[in-house]
Design a protein that fits this description.
Elements (H helix, E strand, L loop, with lengths): L5 H24 L2 H10 L7 E6 L7 E2 L5 E2 L5 E5 L4 E7 L3 E8 H12 L5 H10 L6 H8 L4 H7 L4 H7 L1 H13 L1 H11 L11 E5 L8 E5 H7 L5 E2 L7 E4 L2 E6 L8 E7 H8 L2
Parallel strand pairs: 5-7
Antiparallel strand pairs: 1-4, 2-3, 4-5, 6-12, 7-8, 9-10, 10-11, 11-12
Helix pairs in contact: 4-8, 7-8
């Protein structure tokens, strides 16, 4: 059997994700023990469930903090009789993309969502590491070494070249990720660019009904955030082309093969599980 190319892989992942959500929907609606687990995880153990609504193939766009519409991070809404809801993000795989966003949109969206201003030196570091700066190739040509061909092709710098160009920028980028780890986690798992709290996720459910793996873990997002550590560090491959995070990693990625690329955040089930078991 021939392997899928990357584009086919993402298409399969999305479709199989919707299929998995449909199966989780069917199981949840007919299993009172699962409903009880969800209520306990969502910090509503004594609440009564009014209805359950699912996204997936039925998902609709929601209001965006930058105007227009965006996708919700919630796949499943458990509406309660007290008027509140438990919003669940369903993950069928132990790893993979959790948030793909353009660099400028990330900066603008992060500042708007969390009412913060990202320092200019961090914005400069981001623009070089993900290649939106106009002088990215010039810096790569001047300071790049063994990864220069990669950096020119991808139109971005790795940690090694960024550090040669300006060690303070390299440090500032990593420091910013560590200082804003909870907000970055929220951006990836809870809010995305959605402007309304009713569209934000507050529970992550690792469950796969497609016989691809054996996971069934519910995590309250605020509980994960309390466990997050300041352990962001550059990866050790391709001169530091990723930033490793306590819940996954972030890298450069261009799904449509255009320059500049995007910021692609990945989640990692085992990292999150290890955090919650400490």
């Amino acid at each position: 059997m021939s392997q899928r190319n990357r584009a086919e892989g993402w298409k399969h992942a999305k479709l199989s994700g919707h299929e998995n959500e449909a199966l989780v929907e069917a199981i949840t609606e007919n299993d009172d023990s699962l409903k009880t687990r969800i209520l306990i995880c969502g910090k509503k153990p004594n609440a009564k469930i009014k209805s359950i609504d699912f996204g997936g193939l039925k998902e609709t766009d929601v209001d965006c903090v930058l105007g227009g519409k965006t996708k919700s991070k919630s796949d499943m809404h458990v509406y309660l009789e007290d008027g509140s809801s438990i919003n669940i993000s369903i993950k069928k795989s132990a790893g993979g993309q959790v948030f793909l966003i353009g660099v400028d949109r990330f900066v603008e969206g992060f500042e708007k969502q969390f009412n913060q201003t990202i320092p200019d030196n961090v914005k400069r570091a981001i623009s070089l590491y993900w290649g939106t700066a106009d002088d990215t190739r010039d810096v790569a040509n001047t300071y790049g070494d063994k990864n220069k061909a990669y950096e020119i092709r991808k139109h971005r710098l790795t940690k090694e070249t960024l550090e040669k160009y300006d060690p303070a920028l390299s440090k500032a980028l990593l420091d910013w990720f560590n200082e804003n780890m909870a907000e970055i986690f929220d951006f990836c798992f809870t809010t995305g660019l959605a402007s309304n709290k009713s569209d934000w996720a507050n529970v992550i459910w690792y469950r796969n009904e497609l016989a691809e793996n054996d996971m069934d873990d519910l995590y309250y997002i605020e509980d994960i955030k309390k466990k997050l550590t300041k352990t962001a560090e550059y990866g050790n491959k391709t001169g530091g082309s990723t930033i490793q995070l306590p819940f996954g990693f972030v890298q450069w990625h261009s799904p449509r093969k255009v320059i500049p690329g995007c910021m692609q955040f990945h989640h990692n089930y085992q990292k999150i599980k290890d955090l919650m078991e400490k």
